[in-house]
Design brief:
By secondary structure, the chain is α+β, with helices and mostly antiparallel strands. A hairpin with a 7-residue loop joins strand 3 (61-68) and strand 4 (76-82). A 12-stranded mixed β-sheet has the order 1-2-3-4-5-12-6-11-10-9-8-7, with helices on both faces. Helix 2 packs antiparallel against helix 6, helix 3 crosses helix 4 and helix 5 (168-181) packs across helix 6 (193-204). The radius of gyration is 20 Å and the shape is globular. It is built from 8 helices and 12 strands. It has 2 domains: 7-130, Aminopeptidase; 142-294, Aminopeptidase, CATH 3.40.630.30.
Length: 305
């Protein structure tokens, strides 16, 4: 059997090495950097999350894994990162740790994890652990020409798009829109305002100048928040309440974000979407010029007994 380095709890001091590992995996899977230090540090700010690393004998890390579970939820979330070119034994060890930790956090609950369609090692490690593919996702992207100017149409009568402040009322409005709108999404489970705020405004999407709310006749109807990756803008979440869908509000928010990313010098914007999203999100993104660049697989790992 191929030997592996020490497996141990991840420390905040490991953040640079975790980022290096994640960027290697990004390049192998999507061909461009898809991780920032803010994303890595957000894991360490999440009190409910557990993480582990495997040291590489050659220096740095050969593996990283995390598991998170929120009280009252019926599943755990997790993922593993394996250094490209590493042996399958690294993936197996990470998945074993992930399932043990999920059992400790939430006995009897399955763990949902992800693998890119080109990452055969992760797929194999998940399948060997009894994992089943339960959903497919697309990474959508759009690239702007150097001389292209994003045109944002004027809102229809009664429609208002405005930025978001750090006033708690604005943040609670965004949370309420996202929570209600995403009840139509696969396997969604509600989370408290405090938890949501912790991993968005206080975590991975801290730049409120990349947040917008949409109103119809003064009623909160939609919201979008985003962040930046090393080489692209990233639309983290776009949500429109069911009764306001189909009237161009989501498209208006999306184009507003495109225009801001372009103003900041980005020539590309990406996002992730459920390939069979029942809200029409995929068609919306395609109508705005985005195209599926990569496919991801969502697995459910059975709980350890």
């Amino acid at each position: 059997m191929v030997g592996i380095g020490e497996m141990r709890a991840a420390l905040i001091e490991d953040a640079p090495a975790i980022l290096d590992l994640a960027l290697l995996a990004d390049l192998a899977e999507v061909g461009e950097p898809n991780t920032t230090m803010e994303l890595v540090e957000a894991d360490f700010k999440t009190s409910s999350l557990r993480a582990a690393v495997i040291d590489d004998a050659a220096g740095g890390l050969s593996g990283y894994a995390f598991v998170d579970h929120l009280d009252g939820h019926e599943k755990c979330w997790g993922d593993i990162i394996v250094k490209p070119g590493a042996d399958i034994v690294i993936g197996r060890s990470l998945v074993e740790w992930l399932r043990r930790t999920a059992r400790d956090l939430a006995p009897g609950a399955p763990c949902h994890v992800f693998a890119g369609s080109v990452n055969l090692l992760k797929q194999r490690a998940y399948a060997e652990a009894g994992g089943e593919v339960i959903r497919r996702f697309f990474r959508m992207g759009i690239e702007f020409a150097d001389d292209e100017v994003i045109s944002v149409p004027a809102p229809a009568p009664g429609v208002e798009i405005r930025g978001v402040t750090d006033d708690e009322a604005d943040l609670r409005t965004m949370h309420a829109i996202v929570d209600v709108a995403f009840r139509d999404h696969f396997a969604h489970e509600s989370e408290s305002f405090e938890t949501w705020r912790g991993h968005t405004f206080d975590g991975t999407c801290a730049d409120l100048s990349l947040w917008w709310l949409g109103f119809v006749d003064g009623v909160p109807a939609a919201g979008l928040y985003s962040s930046t990756l090393p080489t692209s803008g990233y639309v983290d979440t776009l949500a429109t309440l069911r009764e306001f869908r189909g009237n161009g509000l989501g498209r208006l928010l999306l184009l507003t974000s495109f225009a801001e990313f372009q103003r900041r010098g980005f020539r590309k914007v990406v996002l992730g979407v459920d390939a069979t999203n029942p809200t029409g999100a995929l068609a919306l993104y395609e109508s705005a010029g985005m195209r599926a660049e990569h496919q991801g697989l969502r697995y459910s790992l059975p709980p350890l007994l």
